Amino acid sequence: MNLKKLPLLGLIFALMACGLPTFPAALTPSAAPQNTATSEASPSPQASPTLAAPSTLTICLGQEPNTLYPYDKPNLAARAVLAALYDGPIDVFTNGYQPVIVESIPSLAKGDAQRVPVKVKRGDPVTDVNGSPVILETGTQVYPAGCADLACSLRFDGQTSLEMDQMTVTFHLKPGLLWSDGIPLTAADSVYAFTLASDPATPAEKYLLDRTQRYETIDDLTVQWWGRPGFLDPTYADNFWSPLPHHAWGTLSAADLLRADLTTRPPLGWGAYVFKEWQPGQYIQLEKNPNYFRAAENLPTFQSLVFRFLPDTESGISGLTAGECDLLDASLRLEGQLNLLQELQNKNTLQVVAAPSPLMERLDLGINPASYDDGISAAERPNLFADVRTRQAIAACLDREKVNQTVLNGLSAIPDTFVPVGHPLRSEELTRYTYDPNLGVTLLEQAGWKDDDGNPSTPRKALNVSGVPNGTPLLLRYLTTSALQRRQVSEILHTSLAACGIGLEITYLTPEELYAPGGAGPLFGRQFDLAEYAISPLGSEPACAAFTTQAIPSAANGWIGVNVSGYKNPDFDALCQQAQRTLPDDPSYASVWAQLQSIYANDLPSLPLYQRLKVVAARPDFCNLNVDSTTLFDLWNLEEYAISAACQR
After folding, report:
1. pLDDT over 50 at 165, yes or no
2. Which of 400, 404, 359, 356 lies closest to 533, judged by CA?
3. Is residue 120 in some structural domain?
4. Are residues 363 and 344 in the same domain?
């Protein structure tokens, strides 16, 4: 499913289902090879070339879907099921796009995407220099046609003829697509989805909707998107709304669709499988879709697909070794059991695949706490991070590679900036901070943090540090959740920072406490020195906007925003605005992003610790298990899954 057409992921929490579900005998999944040392279940036959491939695939999830309506804020488990019902329509990766039910990915080079100057007048809907949808009035600051930089922006005088750039993107559906009930799928179904998403009653993400002038069919297989004048979208290639079945749902209003149950609004898609049954708290069963557009390729392999809901990691591993699961989804948080999984893999009991994900674990520095918004007084926390050398010293004193090797078995990647490792926009020409306590100590000394007692294990103290009273110890409040992995990480970082004379007071909070909304919450209320957490990207482009002044949560904006460090840099803000208007086809695209990363690497409002691992496990004869490090969703190719002795590891 298209991320931009669904509610924002924001901060991801894996909420596990409660209670171990029973599994009906009629739906017992295919048997996997047993590990009698770890399972008390009766052993099943070992995989053998002479045995027929199973007809049922069982995927075990770490939570139960909250809905199967794409516009009802589906959680990660729901999106896994929806991936089986709706294939694509465009698979989004951090390094590009892959067409699924569209003929190709539009581009300026091919001509199915265009940027053209259009005349605008007072009263027309446009976007201003901040990218906000506005009505053009006298005094509105906009980018005229051909301008992508604030230096060439202007304020509309209400009279002078004005042209602004407008984008159009054309998408062509593959011919012969059918809904699972056999009705042809057309461009009108995509426009119907756009209409539903636009309805105020639908809790869909409105960002792109608010910047869309129109979305319309050209013919049965062609749909065209028109952006508001002034809105140049670097991710234009997936501005296609996932079709929804107008013929089946068209009599229901947007509000009715939210309230409708499965009998009134059964899930209906074009993907590899069709909905059959949902047993709450236990499983969802799907059946092979005879109208799947890849059926001629003998896909999908299985007649039946069962999504089973399990309460925790341990029950998932037990279910896999007992033959009750064929595949364990990453929602079961398997990264905490990597050693056990690798031991079982060495015994040919299962196979495990791990890859760094775009989800980044990071350590934010409280550069500007919320208490500074009204000015810094003597009663406030000292301005500990005003000198950039202090931030750079912390980066040099973090032993992130030990975290990777010790906690993540060396399988993760350590980013240098907000751009993940492996992303095509990652710059190679910027300051990098490997673990170097000697450099860290030198930077601390230069900033004025002195070792006054000759004991390197005690916190250094300020001596003429900018914004900090003399004698203030370099003792930082470190907040994170109590998850086992974060405890392990914080202990390693505590030791490595102490070697430089940086002390930590670590407080472990529940997710509800750390991520509490509003000014009272420690994270979004900007009440911390250091905060470790993870935040998800939302698409293929890096999130520079997360570090702009506009994204600082504060009382003035209702505590909305993700720049919890309170970082402010006008040069970064201006470049981020420029990046958000620079299209991938433009010659300056990569250089703008390289400049942003260079500023970030110098200023360090946040310290990337590592990329979270995506870990899945499957029976040893599972085929086509492709865990792609560039996509958020692991089941993107589930129609190609198979089980065969030829794939035995």
Report:
1. yes
2. 359
3. yes
4. no
Residues in the chain: 649
**Residues 194 and 234 placed together within one structural domain of the fold:** yes
CA distances for 411 relative to 314, 344, 407, 612, angstroms = 21, 17, 9, 10
Q: What pLDDT does 145 receive?
A: 97
Q: Model's pTM, two decimal places?
A: 0.85
Number of domains in the chain: 3
The four Cα atoms 115, 121, 122, 125 give a dihedral, to 10 degrees, of -30
Give the domain CATH number at 527. Answer: 3.10.105.10
Please give the average per-residue pLDDT across 540-554, as a whole number. Answer: 91
Say whether both 191 and 106 belong to one domain.
yes
C-alpha span between 27 and 322 (Å, rounded): 15
66 and 143 belong to one structural domain = no
- What are the pLDDT digits (tens) for 49-103? 334 568 999 999 999 999 999 999 999 899 999 999 999 999 988 778 999 999 9
> Of 371, 370, 336, which is closest to residue 354 (Cα–Cα)?
336
Q: How far is it, in rounded angstroms, from Cα 364 to Cα 100?
A: 38
Within a domain: residue 40? yes
- Give the residues across from 608 on adjacent strands: 362
Q: Percent of the chain beyond pLDDT 70?
A: 91
Q: Distance from first CA to last CA of the chain, Å, rounded?
A: 31
If asked whether residues 309 and 209 sit together in one domain, one would say: no
Whole-angstrom Cα distance, residue 465 to residue 447?
Answer: 6
Task: Give the percent of the chain with pLDDT over 90.
Answer: 78
CATH of the domain at 236: 3.90.76.10
If one counts every other C-beta atom within 10 angstroms of the C-beta of residue 42, the result is: 10
191 and 139 in a common domain: yes
What residues make up the domain containing 278? 3-92+270-350+619-647
Residue 593 inside a domain? The answer is no
Average pLDDT over residues 132-137: 96
**Tokens matching residue 77:** 């488990």
Mean pLDDT, the chain, whole residue set: 89
CA distance 248 to 292: 18
Does residue 569 belong to any structural domain of this protein?
A: no
How far is residue 88's CA from residue 83's CA, in Å, rounded to a whole number? 7
446, 454, 471: which is closest to 396 by C-alpha?
Answer: 446
**CA 332 to CA 327: how far, in whole Å?**
11
SS (H, E, C) 472-527: CECEEEEEEECCHHHHHHHHHHHHHHHCCCCEEEEEEECHHHHCCCCCCCCCCCCC
Please check whether residues 423 and 485 belong to one and the same domain: yes
SS3 575: helix
